[in-house]
Amino acid sequence: MASKTLTEILLVDFRWIVVVLFLLPVSFLYNLFYSVRSKIIFKLHSAPRSHDAKVAGIQKQVRKWKESGGKTKMCTARPGWQTMSFRKPMYKKTSYQINCNLVDVLDVDTKRKVVRVEPLVSMGQLSETLAPLGWTIPIVPELDDLTVGGLVMGTGVESSSHIYGLFQHICLSYELVLADGSVVKCSENENSDLFYAVPWSYGTLGLLTAVEIMIIPATKYIRLHYEPVAGLQNVVDKFESACRDTKKNKYVEGLLYTLDEAVIMTGEMVEDSEVEPDKVNDISKWYKPWFFVHVRDILKKREKTYEYDIVPFGNNIIFRYLFGWLLPVKVSLLKLTQTETVKKLYENNHIIQDLLVPTSTMKKCCEEFDRLVNVYPVWLCPFLLPNNPGMLQPAKGMTSDLYVDIGVYGVPKGRRFQPVETTRAVEDLVEQSKGFQMLYADTYRTREEFRRMFDHGLYDKMRKKYNCEGAFPEVYDKVNKNVRD
Q: Is the peptide bond before 132 cis (omega within 30 degrees of 0)?
């Protein structure tokens, strides 16, 4: 075997050095630059004026593609390393790439309770814009780098989703450039068939250029209640009960630390006058322990638990004081500096999946995931799935149904873990449970199996209606494992 170069040794054996000394500072400076830029653009109200020109530029590119004969299918020119998927999309190499530099918040209308944004606006950027105004969007997926476009074309869920549904359900309208270069707006009352088909379509019906999202008043504090629960059936019962009480519990989520131990968390917004000063816990401070560690301490477990991360000492108190203010490192930069060796290590020894199943199957799924992968902690996040047209629909005959996102992220401890076989077994279980798989993660479904899991009825009609078949790839051709590196 050939000896490793110094660069390979640093990027593989001592990756934490690269992360701490290079990627953390670069992430901080990158975020600082775009934060300042975003505030200036919003303050000057220049984004709405430039938006139409940017959309016209996209239309021009699409028409140029059409005039050239449209021999290859279109996709955005956004580099694969900037996406939140663990893998880089290979289809971009053979596609006609359209530059869509749409990164600004366009308008905040507090009378209509609506914010209008371009698709590359991130959750961090949106929160920084709305919070000083006293507003927030009802569902705020917790990773700051997640973009509105990714959450619309893919999906997003958070602890308020048992009331509001998935991210798509708080979106009021979409603006797209279609395959013929025209611009169309769709909502529940205008081009509603397209409106319901856009979520989960991964840019295969048109190029998203703007989104209107509902906003709600926000307070500075949330009162959070932690309840340790023992016994899996008790965990399921408590979780479902908390979700059903939407009047009291505006936020619900759980962390499962073993198959029989969990902490169920419920929360509500409170005014400053209701806050007990001695109970304030600013979990966002750089010197605070990671949240899952903070919650785990509530269980008062006696045995030692070991975690393995890119920065293995990241939760060390000294590291948090010295470098915590630089966290988190940008996922995109981790991908950009990822070597083939590191990629293979992750692929063969790591699992990242969000599995959306009815809460009626939650106990069985948790038991099976424990047997198949044995990864903890497991994130439990509820969401309401209304019976709307589109890719995702509740069981037949249901007007809506309560689902749970079972988030499994980490190194499987089971001796039988095999990336392909185990992931396929997990996917089979999800399909049998009438559930769905988040598509940012690896999916090994065949085309036929994929179409069984996701309802393509409306999607296929829209593909035909808007002449997408020769212009954009199908969803499956953008998300299956074979087209991701």
A: no
CA 456, CA 459: separation in Å to the nearest integer?
A: 5
CB 62 within 8 A of CB 179: yes
Residue 137 burial (CB count, 10 A): 24
> What's the farthest any 2 CA atoms get from each other in the chain?
68
Q: Which residue has the tokens 């797209």?
A: 176
- Distance between CA 75 and CA 209 in Å, rounded? 13
Residue bearing tokens 């785990």:
296
Give the pTM.
Answer: 0.87
Pairing of strands 96-98, 74-76: parallel
Cβ-Cβ contacts under 8 Å for 6 (sequence gap 6 or more): none
Residue-wise pLDDT tens digits, 176-209: 999 999 999 999 999 999 999 999 999 999 999 9
What CA–CA distance (Å, rounded) separates 194 from 189?
A: 11
Cis preceding-peptide flag for 386 (omega within 30 of 0): no
Mean per-residue pLDDT of the chain: 87
Where would I find the H helices in 279-403? 291-299, 317-323, 331-336, 340-349, 362-372
Q: What is the mean pLDDT of residues 5-13?
A: 57
Domain extents in the chain: 45-214+457-483, 222-270+339-453
Cα–Cα distance measured from residue 170 to residue 168, given in angstroms and rounded to the nearest whole number: 6
The predicted structure's pLDDT at residue 279: 79
**Cβ within 8 Å of residue 103, ≥6 positions away:** 34, 38, 118, 120, 121
Write the DSSP assignment of 419-432 as a string of letters.
HHHHHHHHHHHHHH
**Tally of CA atoms within 13 A in the half-sphere of 469 that contains its CB:** 7
Cβ distance 168 to 208 under 8 Å?
A: no
d(CA 384, CA 404): 9
Nearest to 166, CA basis, from 366, 401, 363: 401
Position 12 pLDDT exceeds 60: no
**Cα gap 97→89, rounded to integer Å:** 13
The token pair at 81 is 């390393």
Look up tokens 């045995």; give the residue. Answer: 303
Provide mean pLDDT across the span 294-315: 48
CA distance 235 to 291: 20
Q: What is the pLDDT of residue 306?
A: 27
Give the separation between CA 127 and CA 389, rounded to whole angstroms: 30
Q: What is the C-alpha radius of gyration for the chain, rounded to an integer number of angstroms? A: 22
- Which CATH topology does 45-214+457-483 take? 3.30.465
Q: Are 368 and 176 in contact (CB under 8 A)?
A: no
46 Cβ neighbours under 8 A, 6+ residues apart:
none
Burial of 464-481, coded b for 16+ CB within 10 Å and e otherwise, reads: eebebeebbbbbbebbbb
- Between CA 250 and CA 268 the distance in angstroms is 5
